Amino acid sequence: MTGTRFLNGVSRRALATLGAALAVTFLALTPGTASAGDGDRQITKLRITILTADDNLRQASRAVAALKYENAYGEVLSAGGHLNNAAEWPNWSSRTVDILMPTGVVLSRLHEFSIQFTSGQPDIFSTGDNWNMASVLVVGILDDESELVLVNQANSPYLHRFKSDAFTRWATPL
Predict the structure, then answer these.
(1) CB atoms closer than 10 angstroms to residue 167
(2) Could you give the CA distance from residue 42 to residue 89 in angstroms, rounded to a whole number?
(3) How many CA atoms lie within 13 A of 111 on its CB side?
(4) By percentage, how much of the chain surpasses pLDDT 70?
């Protein structure tokens, strides 16, 4: 009887160990969205989707996205790019822009995402531009092509009103 109990105990432990190993393997090989354990995963690209509200972003104005992060040496840096390239975004229009990130931008060291607005004037007779942003969605594309939502904010009638001479920057901590 002692031999039977021993074999039953060994087989239960072996089965439990095998089950745990299979579960870990399954989780490691399953593609999908990033999880909390992915803090050191590199972000290769940002996919930014912005909805303009009831006041357009005029031609000649510029919207620039920036991601503030800390590099491996503890320096706080910024990476980003132009969103509209001085093109008009009409009222109630949605635009999606991809911006490549430099090497070394990792999830665990993100500080802030921001949009800087610079009012443009298409001619000397135009007044400064104002722009209402209804929503912003920022998705980080990771080094394995999985996606992680970094920012998803909206408000009615608008999330932020950029003015030609005030409120030219919108930011959110990460």
Answers:
(1) 12
(2) 31
(3) 12
(4) 78
